[in-house]
Design brief:
By secondary structure, the chain is of the alpha/beta class. Helix content is 25%, strand content 14%. This is Prolyl oligopeptidase family serine peptidase.
Length: 186
C-alpha cells in the first residue's frame, strides 16, 4: 500500500473494527458463504494460517435467498449450465461437476454444518416466494434443519419477491436486519 508516496504495511493501518461485534450478511451465493463462514468458526476446517491469531466467530448471520445445497437439481431451474464444471457452483469446487463429485459439493452445503452439539450464531433468513433463480425450498430446508438441531433461527418467506428483489433492500427490511444485529450486539 502507498500513503503520501511512502510504502505502508498492514501494521501501519489502524482499523475501527470491534472484534467482539462481528456480523456476516450475504445474498444469494454470498448468503451461502456467510452462513458457512459463521457455522464453521469452531471447526477449523475452512481456515488458513492467515490471521490465525483472530477468532472466526461472529455474533450473528443474515442469509438472504442463499443457496444452501447445490446438489438439488430441481432448485435451480434457470441456470443453463447448472452443476457443470463451468457453472458458479462447479467453479466453487474446482471446476468439477457438482453431481459427479458429492464429496466436494458437501463442503459447500450449509446443512452439513448444522449440528446440535456445535455452537453457532443466531441466523436471520429471508427468501422470496417468486424466486426462480434459487428456489425458496433451499431456505425452507435449511431453516427446518436449523430448528431440528435447536438453533436460534428466524425465517421470512416474502410474497411476490423474486431473486434480489428491491424489497430486500428497502427501509422496512433493512430496519429488521438492523434490529436483528442490535439484538446480538455485545
Amino acid at each position: 500500500m502507498i500513503r503520501n508516496g511512502e510504502n505502508m504495511t498492514l501494521e501501519d493501518i489502524q482499523t475501527k473494527i470491534d472484534p467482539e461485534n462481528i456480523f456476516l450478511m450475504g445474498d444469494s451465493s454470498s448468503g451461502n458463504t456467510a452462513f458457512i463462514t459463521a457455522f464453521t468458526a469452531d471447526m477449523n476446517c475452512m481456515d488458513t494460517d492467515v490471521y490465525k491469531e483472530y477468532s472466526c466467530k461472529v455474533n450473528a448471520v443474515v442469509d438472504l435467498y442463499g443457496v444452501s445445497c447445490v446438489k438439488i437439481k430441481e432448485d435451480f431451474p434457470t441456470t443453463p449450465n447448472q452443476g457443470e464444471p463451468d457453472s458458479p457452483e462447479g467453479l466453487e469446487i474446482g471446476s468439477k461437476n457438482v453431481y459427479e463429485h458429492p464429496e466436494l459439493s458437501d463442503q459447500i452445503t450449509c446443512m452439513n454444518y448444522v449440528k446440535k452439539e456445535l455452537p453457532s450464531p443466531p441466523v436471520l433468513m429471508m427468501h422470496g416466494i417468486a424466486d426462480d433463480t434459487v428456489a425458496p425450498n433451499q431456505s425452507i430446508q435449511l431453516y427446518k434443519k436449523l430448528k431440528e438441531e435447536e438453533k436460534d433461527a428466524t425465517f421470512y418467506l416474502v410474497e411476490g419477491a423474486d431473486h434480489g428483489h428491491p424489497y430486500f433492500w428497502c427501509e422496512p427490511t433493512l430496519s429488521l436486519i438492523e434490529q436483528f444485529f442490535k439484538k446480538y450486539m455485545k
